[in-house]
Structure prediction request, 490 residues.
Amino acid sequence: MVGLLHTIEIAIGATCLGLLIGIGGAYGKLYGGPVVRDLLAVYTTAVRAVPELVLILLLYYAGTDLINQVLAALGYQRIDISGLAAGIAVLGFVQGAYSTEVIRGAILSIPQGQIEAARAYGMSPGLLLRRITLPAMLPFAIPGLANLWLIATKDTALLAVVGFYELTLATRQAAGVTKAYLTFYLAAGAIYLLVSLISNLIIGRIEARARRGMPSLKEAR
Amino acid sequence: MAGEAAIINVAARTSLWLQPHRIVLILIALGLVLAAAFFMRWDWLPQYYEAGLLGIWRSLWILAVTCVLGFLLAVPLGLAQAAGPFWFAAPAKVFCTIIRGTPLLLQLWLLYYGLGSLFPQYPWIRESWMWPYLRQAWPYGVLALTLSFAGYEGEVMRGAFAGVPKGQLEAARAFGMSRWKAFRRIWLPQAFYRALPTLTGETVLQLKSTPLVATISVIDIFAVSSKVRQDTYLTYEPLLLLALIYMAITGILVFAFSRIEARIPNKIG
Prediction:
């Protein structure tokens, strides 16, 4: 159960971090200068082309090592980075690349007139982002982001490989101790499935709310 | 999705290839690569060169086998969901939901440790001709990856089959084609064309899940790099090279699929 808690904590943390990176990245890609745009293109392409497992290993070791080296160079003591924080950071970094693309597409599908109208009213860019762009892009972004959330819950399983204690690793240890492999793995699978199905329900609600006032997809076709 | 974006990137890159800031960025990237080549340790490369090639070959082999088998499995899955009667569609839907709702790593471990621990309890399995295969790790890896690919792709094929206009099928039947012939000549090709862009993305995703088989002791390229890291106590060099290899394979895959996609007629529906 501690494992499940860790899994969900990491999935939520990583998705939130990924969303922040994604919003920033999408803005950079749409409105940034040429250098920013190219760098972001490299980021999203590279992260999406390399297996998550390799990225997790690379960032997990390289990231903690780098932070410690920087701290040592600045004259501080080495710190132990908790697996939770490292896991959230790593998965968030990966999720950020995917959500950048999702959010970029969603912002592009907002009718341009809405943003222009907001500018004409003299809104500052921050207000524009908060009041217009984010709420207006939400209905377009939610299916993609929902997918990302499901991927995040499943990607947490990969952290078992670097030895972080979450649902899959807990299952493996429990199964190893009791020798009842099939039972434990089936139970863990059922838990993951339950998480997915429950999130599907919740996402359906959120989507219905975000799309309120818009024509339903079936009528639009 | 990744595939499409990459294609667009390639197109954009070739049209606006040489802009001043790009040249600077490319120079910086070159500098980083050169710095990596000079300041990092690469003396382990000759020693593990052959193992690495073998690992790449094995990864590609697993990728190809699981994609082909998975796709063959996905066609009936999609068809059952799109057009089958309830008692046919329901199991297919349940299968897809289960596969897509649980992590691949868990499925892999369930098959390898779970099923693998069951088999030796039955003497008739141990004495059968299958035992030498069942004792190894790769059949479980291939099975898990195939099922996973079939699960994801089955959902895609469902949409693709459902998206073929009804009139096409009715016309085929009106021409006197048998049901099987109409399926083979009309329904399947059109659904395949529709699914092709997604298929690119799925294949890249599948490539990215192949390193998971290393966790059940199949020696693919990922396992080779782990071995290098254990032997030489180097953290970054093997991983960086590994990332580069995967990026290269992804690039080749996306390029190949874009060539296939360019060949199909694009007036559909």
The two ends of chain B are 21 Å apart (CA to CA). The domain at 40-263 of chain B is CATH 1.10.3720.10 (MetI-like fold). The mean pLDDT of chain B is 82.
